[in-house]
Amino acid sequence: MIIWLITFFEVKDADFIASDKNKVKNVNLKIEKQGEIITLLGPSGVGKTTVLRTIAGLQKINKGEIYLKGNLLSSDSHHLEPEKRNIALSFQDNSLFPNYRVIENINFGKKRSNGNKYVYEDKDIIKLLHIEPILEKFPHQISAGEAQRVSLARSLMSKPDLLLLDEPFSNIDQNLKDELQNSVKNLLKKINLTTIIVTHDSYEAFSLADKCGIILNQQLKQFDIPYNVHHEPNSIEVAKFLNKGVFVDVKVVSSDCAVHSLKHKELGEIRGKLLNNFSEGSKVKLLLQPEDLIHDDQSSLKLEVVDRKFRGTNFIYTLKTKSGEHLPVFVHSHHIHQHEKAEKFGIKTPIYIDHLVCF
Known about the structure:
This protein is of the alpha/beta class and 359 residues long. It has helices at residues 48-56, 102-111, 122-128, 144-157, 174-191, 202-208, 226-231, 236-242, and strands at 9-17, 23-31, 37-41, 65-68, 71-74, 87-90, 162-166, 194-199, 211-216, 219-224, 246-254, 260-264, 268-274, 283-288, 302-310, 314-320, 326-332, 344-346, 351-356. It is globular and about 70 Å long.
């Protein structure tokens, strides 16, 4: 007997268009299993919110198809009304009913509940999102961050099949943001609620997601697990957007064994696993991330310090090669001594990098 497994959510060859500038074209995206958390990461104005609005049914598509649990939601000839999709969308901006108190706004979500057997009640959500002190207030009496939390609570109380969150933590103070992110993620996983989260914060996207999509220049450029997006960006464009390091010119010396070898005119041999297939002798650009180079005071390979930034648990030093390349390097903040500008800074050799990301 053949058992057909239905993809929980799928976008096929879809265009999401709000204006000439605000659009994402030819998108293909799958959420295989219920309960996965997906993040869409990209700069402001790139079309991320348009994607959410279209999935929710607030905008139509003229190309492609959108499916939820095997059912067609949108195509060029079909548009299921938003109220029939059982999808909840929590906006970045205040979308609360102004003439109703916070508790009444939350209860609107409860009224829309479709009977999904989730294990939480309104009091659980209120406590989780720290809303207790503002329940009797009206939307104009609360802060933007509080309004975001109320909107999220209302969406959760509707118990949807798919939850869409537009920058849900953008207006929340950092000391509360980390706690809320962890709590909300744990809740979503506990109740197995499939969620798509839009954000412009890469740390937020990576920490929350099972899979992360990068949207740049009107396209979904990469869709993969956060580890691969971070360590193995599939293009220079994605790597530069994530601001993970710098590109240096190298030559492929060996590419036919388990450990490959590159050559940089000042750093010398760089070994590791090439992620792309390049023949020996190829001149390529290698992505160097701050964690790739290791500081060694005893090394004979020394470069000049041109900048130092303190990041709490570590410093990021910027080193300059003789040819003018600037290389970032992480050093733990408890390192025995700090290096000043114009000092010489040792790099451990030979250089070994697990992922040799080259283009």
